[in-house]
Design goal:
Low-confidence stretches: 1-17
Mean pLDDT: 86
Organism: Ramlibacter agri
Shape: globular
Protein name: DUF2147 domain-containing protein
Largest sheet: 8 strands, antiparallel, barrel
Number of strands: 8
CATH class: Mainly Beta
CATH topology: Lipocalin
CATH architecture: Beta Barrel
Distance between the termini: 46 Å
Number of domains: 1
Strand order of the largest sheet: 1-2-3-4-5-6-7-8
Keywords: Signal
Strand content: over 45%
Order of helices and strands: HHEEEEEEEE
Helix content: 10-25%
CATH superfamily: Quinohemoprotein amine dehydrogenase alpha subunit, domain 2
């Protein structure tokens, strides 16, 4: 009887500490995108901070802000089967930049790589987004 009890306790202890499985890149959902991210651009030392929150009007989308040394922009976007899109607006009306990227395989939805391109620019800049914190519960 003691041996059975010990085995049950060991089995429970093993599952209690188990973490949720890491989603594949194509499985990452909008909910998993919510939170604070650090963005780094190729050839730049400064870190840009991106906050993504649940969009109040469009299910499956997120919105938030992009904070960099020059100020704060509004942003809205989505993730679909690992493809990430974020549109940035300095005035809340016109798109001033676009982030197009992909969730990195094996990152559990915590890293995105792609290209950021300002409206009207001929070439974009490579970026890496890394998740810092999840969204606060509401």
């Amino acid at each position: 009887m003691r041996r059975l009890l010990a085995l049950l306790l060991l089995a429970c202890a093993g599952t209690a500490g188990a973490q949720a499985p890491c989603p594949e890149a194509w499985e990452v959902t909008t909910e998993q995108m919510l939170g604070v991210w650090h963005a780094q651009f190729a050839g730049e030392w400064d870190t840009t901070i991106v906050l993504l929150e649940k969009h109040p009007d469009y299910a499956g989308n997120f919105r938030g802000g992009v904070k960099r040394a020059g100020g704060v922009s509004q942003a809205t976007g989505d993730v679909d089967e690992g493809d990430f899109t974020l549109e940035e607006s300095a005035d809340g009306v016109h798109i001033t930049a676009a982030w197009i990227g992909e969730v990195v395989d094996g990152s559990c939805g915590k890293e995105i790589r792609g290209t950021w391109k300002a409206d009207g620019a001929k070439e974009g800049k490579d970026f890496v987004l890394r998740k810092v914190t999840p969204a606060a519960p509401r």
